[in-house]
Amino acid sequence: MPFDNDGLISWELMVERINSELANTLGNLVNRTISMSNKYFDGIVTSTGVTEEVDDHLKEVVTQTAEKVSAKMADLRVADAITEIFNLFKRCNKYIDETTPWILAKEEATKPRLSEVLYNLVESITIGATLLQSFMPDTAAKIFAQLHTKEVPFERLHMFGNFESGTKVTEKPEILFARLDIKEVMGRVNALHPEETEKESAPEPSGPVIDIEPKAEITFDDFEKMQFQVGEIIECKAVEKSKKLLCSQVKIGSQVKQIVSGIRKHYSPEEMVGKKVMVLVNLKPAKLAGVLSEGMLLCAEDENGELSLMIPEKTMPSGAEIC
Fold first, then answer.
1. Is the Cβ–Cβ distance between 198 and 160 less than 8 Å?
2. 37-50 average pLDDT score
3. Quick one: which of 228, 317, 236 has its CA closest to 276?
4. How high is the pLDDT of residue 205?
5. Is there a contact between 125 and 167 (Cβ–Cβ < 8 Å)?
6. Nearest-angstrom CA–CA distance, 256 and 272
7. Is 261 strand, coil or helix?
8. In whole angstroms, what is the distance from residue 40 CA to residue 59 CA?
9. What is the C-alpha to C-alpha distance for residues 273 and 21, in angstroms, rounded to an integer?
10. DSSP 3-state of 247
């Protein structure tokens, strides 16, 4: 949740975050890495020195994460600090897709390379878990136990190669986070709070009311021309030539659109990644500060000029139509 902005909490969003961030991004990463180490090398993780160019970017992300987390915490931006740690874990998952360990395992000649890939993953996870333990100490302890290692000293978090080569990981990895079913969760909620659920009514409006100058009426045919869909921001960065613009890569169904928005004052690039947003997808492409924009993110503006992204109230898949 952003440090200086309102946040939204719901059972649906909690389940979505647990499934996507904890079960998939982190839990699945640890489980896959340990399982592959057992399957291909009887659990023994060894650095062979057989490196490739793709390793460099992984190591760069991993060794720079501690500095980024420290900078966020210095500004009391706890959510952003946690995001930096999970960016490390997401990079590890991408590294698995890039190196395809299951293909390397097919040939004896590529086994040394496979061993190095798995070592890089275990080392990266260990550094990530070290940074994570301040926020999730029990989870970090479980990861260390399964990798048969311990936390990395703070002064060595910017160095790669702390994990002792030749260490044997656990034979039976523990599932860190089980995926949740929203129907089961809501069933438990309703069972625990039946009266609250039955008496639930629409809340009274609260807070300031803003009146704006009405624009000319449009016809239903005009409205029909506009296409709105739910998108998920998978990457975001600041536009170099502007102090106001952010450039987001937004996944909408099976396609990815690049959208430039004037919200840099209100959101950092790190805050944007992972958000589900509402998108006007058939806006004619245009260049802003020399960067192509292929749509528009929907925002609301308060009386002070603060912008807030419009996000779906309930969990919606990327590409869902807004009607």
1. no
2. 96
3. 317
4. 61
5. no
6. 15
7. strand
8. 23
9. 12
10. strand
- Between CA 9 and CA 5 the distance in angstroms is 13
First-to-last C-alpha distance (Å) of the chain: 27
Q: For residue 207, what pLDDT is reported?
A: 63
Give the separation between CA 72 and CA 255, rounded to whole angstroms.
32
Amino acid identity, position 297: L
Place 201 in a pLDDT band, splitting at 50, 70 and 90: low
Are the beta carbons of 258 and 307 closer than 8 angstroms? no
Q: Which helix (H) or strand (E) holds 190?
A: helix 182-192
Q: CA Rg, the chain, in Å?
A: 23
Using an 8 Å Cβ cutoff, are 47 and 119 in contact? yes
Whole-angstrom distance, CA of residue 220 vs CA of residue 224: 6
Q: CB–CB of 197/190 below 8 Å?
A: yes
> What pLDDT shows up at residue 197?
47
Which residues neighbour 57 within 8 Å (Cβ) at sequence distance 6 or greater? 91
Residue type, 131: L
Spatial distance between the Cα atoms of 282 and 255, rounded to a whole number of angstroms: 13
What is the SS3 assignment for 44? Answer: strand
Q: What residue type is assigned to position 18 of the chain?
A: I
Q: Which residues contact 26 (CB under 8 A, 6 or more apart)?
A: 86, 89, 139, 176, 177
Tokens standing for residue 145: 């136990």
**Contact call for residues 143 and 174 (beta carbons, < 8 A):** no
Token couple for 32: 């896959």
34: its two tokens = 């340990």
Do the beta carbons of residue 118 and residue 74 sit within 8 Å? Answer: no
**What is the overall mean pLDDT for the chain?**
91
